[in-house]
Each structure stands twice: as structure tokens, then as C-alpha cells.
Design brief:
- The chain is an all-alpha fold and 314 residues long.
- It is built from 14 helices and no strands.
- The protein has helices spanning 2-29, 34-41, 48-58, 64-76, 90-125, 130-144, 147-161, 173-204, 207-214, 219-247, 251-256, 262-271, 275-303, 305-313.
- It starts with a helix and ends with a helix.
- The relative contact order is 0.13.
Length: 314
Amino acid sequence: MGKYLFKRLLQLIPVLLGITFLSFAMMRLAGGDAVTYMYENAGAAVSQEIIDETKAEYGLDQPFLVQYMKWLGGMLTGDMGESYVSHRDVFDIFISKLPATLLLTVSSILLTVLIALPLGILSAVRQNKWIDYLIRFFSFIGNSMPNFFAALVLMYFLSVRWNLLPVVTTDDMAKSLILPTLTLAVSMVSKYTRQIRATVLEELDKDYVTGARARGVRGSVIIWKSVMKSSMLTIITLLALSIGNLLGGTAIVENIFMWDGVGKMAVDAINMRDYPVIQAYVAWMAIIYVLVNLVTDMIYHYLDPRVRLRGESA
């Protein structure tokens, strides 16, 4: 296991370097001058000399590769630079936004699992019955609905029409969390339900299930002790992908509900061309996806002997 982990870590290093390099290059080639925009946004008319001095202060007058190597060296030591807009340390800004995104991630994943797992199993067990058709119908609707549309529908009914929840985030975090959590859960529940149903149906057709039924084993025991154990790899994959997306910050949902998380921070930084904050966000996204994939691979390696054998023979 240790050898496999070390080899996977070595493979991930060039991936992280490549992502950060490409994102750094694209921001510099995207057009627009961050320093000029900063002064224009502040409503200040300044001379070209002051603009040049500010660029020199931030190191923007240096060659591209020099800028990237300085940024990378700072990242490796925990220095993400200083925001062009607020002049605060980027790491402090990022850390201040992260708890809100973590809270939204945990609540969305928990709600999704609590709803999708029983619905997926029920739909598979009652295949081609009215309850199966009903669950599949709503899963199709939820899976087809973009997050921003689901947010507007929930906002209209729960906030505007019935006045149950605040439209945007307020000091009451418990109430403010409900709408963004429901919005994210709509599409995830639909996706999970369909995948769990398909996985359970595939397992129910296998010989070990037929043999268990022939021996008189109860259906609930077969489902929870055998079928679900065999289906865990698929569920783990879905969880890993969802956690990666949510930890990266669901920018649309966070902006609609003014949820002060990492996604909203990234959108605000893009609008203001705050390059250090944008680059920190890209690095965070890359690290999250790499780590989530690594953890998923390790869980696969532990749960599935076939994966272990392939890894040892590689």
C-alpha cells in the first residue's frame, strides 16, 4: 500500500504543476491590465508613471516565467501573495471563505445520501412498478434542471410566495443554509438515485443473489449485507466527484444566495481581475481534485482485490 501511494503521489506532482502553469499563463494572456483596472475601479485618475510604479511593486513588469516561479515559490512556502483590490493577504482571504464552503459541502452531501440511497434501492427493488416510474420521472426532471433554475424555483416558492426562508444569506446561518443546500441536492439526488438504481439492479441479477434467495435469505439482508457492499465502489466514485465539485465552490449557487464561500470569492475576483486570488482558487481546485482522486484510488485499492492485483502487476 505504501509503495502504491508513493507512486501515485509522484504521478500527481506534474499534474499540479501543469494546471497551475496553464492557469497562470491564461490569466496573463486573457487581456486587460489588472493595475489599470484597479485604479479605474477605485475612480482614480492616475498617470502612467504611477501605473508603472504599481506594476513594479507587484512584480508585473517582470518576464512571465519569472513571475510564475516567484508565485510558485511563494505557494510552496504558504505565501499566496497580496490581493490587488483589498491589499489583504490572499491566504487570509481564502481561509476566511473556506468554512462557509465546507459547511455547504457537508450539508449537501448528507442530504443527498439520506435521500438518494433509499430512493435508489426502492426504485431497483420495485422495478417497473408505479413507485419505480415515479422515482425515475422525478430523477429525470431533477437531473435536467440547471442549478440556477432550481435555485430560482425554490427561491420563488420558499422565500417569495410562502415567506419561509430568507432570499439571500442573513445572520441566521441555519435558515440561510437551507436554500443553497436544497438547490445543490436537487441535481445530486437525481444523479445518485439513477446510479444507485442501476448498480443495485446489476447486482440483483448476479448468481450470488439468486443463490441467497434459493437458500431462503431475506430480501432486506441480501440488499444491505451483500448488494450494497458490492455497490460501494460506484457510490464512492459519485461521492468523490461531488465532494470535489462542492469543495471547489459552486460559484453560481453561492452568488445567487450571496453565500460567502470560495466560489463567490472566485467570481468576485474574476470581475475585479484580482489575479492572486484567482490563482489561489485555481490551485485550490487542482489540489482538491487531485487529493479526492487519490483518496478514491486508495479506497478502491483497499476494497477491491482486483485493483490491488492490477496495481501490483503494473
